[in-house]
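ASSEMBLY PREDICTION REQUEST
Request ID: AP-0331
Submitted by: J.K., bench scientist
Number of chains: two
Total residues: 224
Priority: normal
Notes: Please return the full assembly, not individual chains.
Input sequences:
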Amino acid sequence: KAGVTQTPRYLIKTRGQQVTLSCSPISGHRSVSWYQQTPGQGLQFLFEYFSETQRNKGNFPGRFSGRQFSNSRSEMNVSTLELGDSALYLCASSPQTSGTYEQYFGPGTRLTVT
Amino acid sequence: DAKTTQPPSMDCAEGRAANLPCNHSTISGNEYVYWYRQIHSQGPQYIIHGLKNNETNEMASLIITEDRKSSTLILPHATLRDTAVYYCSVDNNAGNMLTFGGGTRLMVKP
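STATUS: Completed
Returned structure:
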């Protein structure tokens, strides 16, 4: 099976702009989680989608949003970018079958805000 | 709020066991302990998880103290390819809401 893919891999944006990142989970995986990773804060949970519904949300402002499509692909959007949004954004998928606890991470999208 | 604390770095000789500690003193009864590792420029990779019993798989062993306030990840025969940053996390949602702190940078040396 192909792994989790994320596009684009690198992105440079200017403060005030918005950005959309894409994630394609492993085939058959219904849960997609998004994370932000920075040197200062480590890896922090953004939100999780399951069957097109946001099931859990981390402690991030409303500028961060996401959605999941019927084929389980997911996008996240950040509006009104700030310098502090520069980070590696990681997507992870999970099959969500009984007793499954492992998440499979993509390579991430490195976002730089100037 | 960091829920876990780990030493920032450790060295290990190739072929020897690497023992990576994690403190999670505020863990609640329904939270699992997860271990992941991240090799430079890649996404994190799952290693192992546990609730209260010791666990072993093909990659590692996880030892959780009886009071569940700390755990140790054991790589029985470390290789150079095990050089990575190792993260422990606690989560009560089937591992879908992970939070990592700074992790432990493990350097395996020949």
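REVIEWER COMMENTS: Chain B has a mean pLDDT of 91.
SIGN-OFF: pending second reviewer
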